[in-house]
Amino acid sequence: MSHNASNDRKASYKVPPAAVRDASTSQEARRKKALEEQKRRRAERFDSSRQLDFFADLTLGASDDEEENATNEPMREGVAQFASLLPSTSSVPAIEPGSFAAEPQGPVLDSLPMSFGGPKKKGKNKRKAKSRAPKVQSSKPNNKWADKCMYAELLEMTEDTNMKDFDDGVDADGLPSDIETAWVALTPVPLGKRCLAITHAPSGIAGLVPNTTLRSRVLGKSLMKPFPSAIPPHTVLDCILDEHWQNNGILHVLDVVKWKGQDIADCETPFRFWWRDTRLAELPSFPPPSADSEPSSSQYRFSYPTTLLPVPYHTNLSLLHLSSVLIPLSRSTRSVPISVPIHVLTSGADDTSGMNVEQADASTRVDLKSEEATINSDGMLLYVAQATYEPGTSPLSLWVPVRAYAGDRSSTQEVPIGSFQTTREGPLDIFERLVHKRLAQDSYASNMAMES
């Protein structure tokens, strides 16, 4: 390896693709390639579902528009064309009449074993082989729900004025060139744990029988025991379990993968979000479970999520709307109403005769109280409008967090609640400055066009 090549490799080591001076490694290039690959796979699935290959070799019979006086001749094709599919006669043994009742011959009886039990040593080997079988089964692939969420890449931005786009020579700041026309935003994205909500058909009354399981994003493990919900069976939702779910019972819904067994992942982004909001609004609401603690308990704690809350989506991503509405919204908190069960003491009928005064019957009644839950924002998600849902980390979805933490966001370590010490400036701050810069450039270009 030459000295110059070694220096170039060291210079680009652990450097984000946005800072590497190569068009093929930029996030924009990888995103375009991923979108084209997704469109190709989608077209192949459509062609496969239509089963066009089965009809490729079919031909029509004789035309009905031939001469009127022509006689109808029978079809000359028979079953001869299927003769090649039959087994050859040499492979089929000839059976003579009356051979079914014939007794086996002497040599055949002599060749049969008198006993089917093998030596004990072989039996031990068989038992050892069986004992080794679980070890082979232990090398199974991971849980089928592992890494099934569409996980966004961190938006790679730069404020280096010397960076230029490889195609048209404009400033390569890292923002998508078509962000105003070809993207959809989810904001404010709440703080919490990413997971999948999976339902099955319950054998009982909906809303009372457990039918929903939450699976972790990385390993696909169950986060809690199955619980009842209003989500229909055979549904898969991409969700965020709120950081304070035990206090507010909220499960945030990001996306829809499957609904009542129908695959929604192959649909484009705006339709999936519209379907999500429409279908969740149609679901009935069930009261939260009654408190297991004593009535004197200060705060109710949910045993499982009871409120399905979709994350708001926005299709207007003009630079002015981003600057004035969406970016401030990504920094703000959100308040939503929730229902919390409370115990109300009720006394029985008054009985003032004798000693029964101190033994008056007392009971409790469970009522629902409306409260406001505060939801903290974690940032903004950007989706390519033409993209479909795909599992794993994808450049077709971008993540712009409010804060920059010391740990990597892609790790499974959770940041303690309330500890928001940032190591550097937040990515959302850089995103806001780049949007303002583009706005100034567009304003300057329009003014120059008017003067000319």
TrEMBL record:
<dbReference type="InterPro" id="IPR017336">
    <property type="entry name" value="Snurportin-1"/>
</dbReference>
<dbReference type="Pfam" id="PF21974">
    <property type="entry name" value="SPN1_m3Gcap_bd"/>
</dbReference>
<protein>
    <recommendedName>
        <fullName>Snurportin-1</fullName>
    </recommendedName>
</protein>
<feature type="compositionally biased region" description="Basic and acidic residues">
    <location>
        <begin position="34"/>
        <end position="48"/>
    </location>
</feature>
<feature type="domain" description="Snurportin-1 N-terminal">
    <location>
        <begin position="22"/>
        <end position="50"/>
    </location>
</feature>
<keyword id="KW-0813">Transport</keyword>
<comment type="similarity">
    <text>Belongs to the snurportin family.</text>
</comment>
<comment type="function">
    <text>Functions as an U snRNP-specific nuclear import adapter. Involved in the trimethylguanosine (m3G)-cap-dependent nuclear import of U snRNPs. Binds specifically to the terminal m3G-cap U snRNAs.</text>
</comment>
<dbReference type="InterPro" id="IPR024721">
    <property type="entry name" value="Snurportin-1_N"/>
</dbReference>
<feature type="region of interest" description="Disordered">
    <location>
        <begin position="95"/>
        <end position="142"/>
    </location>
</feature>
<keyword id="KW-0694">RNA-binding</keyword>
<keyword id="KW-0539">Nucleus</keyword>
<dbReference type="Pfam" id="PF11538">
    <property type="entry name" value="Snurportin1"/>
</dbReference>
<dbReference type="GO" id="GO:0003723">
    <property type="term" value="F:RNA binding"/>
</dbReference>
<feature type="region of interest" description="Disordered">
    <location>
        <begin position="1"/>
        <end position="48"/>
    </location>
</feature>
<feature type="compositionally biased region" description="Basic and acidic residues">
    <location>
        <begin position="1"/>
        <end position="11"/>
    </location>
</feature>
<feature type="compositionally biased region" description="Basic residues">
    <location>
        <begin position="119"/>
        <end position="133"/>
    </location>
</feature>
<dbReference type="GO" id="GO:0005737">
    <property type="term" value="C:cytoplasm"/>
</dbReference>
<feature type="domain" description="Snurportin-1 m3G cap-binding">
    <location>
        <begin position="175"/>
        <end position="288"/>
    </location>
</feature>
<dbReference type="InterPro" id="IPR047857">
    <property type="entry name" value="Snurportin1_C"/>
</dbReference>
<feature type="region of interest" description="Disordered">
    <location>
        <begin position="57"/>
        <end position="76"/>
    </location>
</feature>
<keyword id="KW-0963">Cytoplasm</keyword>
<dbReference type="GO" id="GO:0005634">
    <property type="term" value="C:nucleus"/>
</dbReference>
<dbReference type="GO" id="GO:0061015">
    <property type="term" value="P:snRNA import into nucleus"/>
</dbReference>
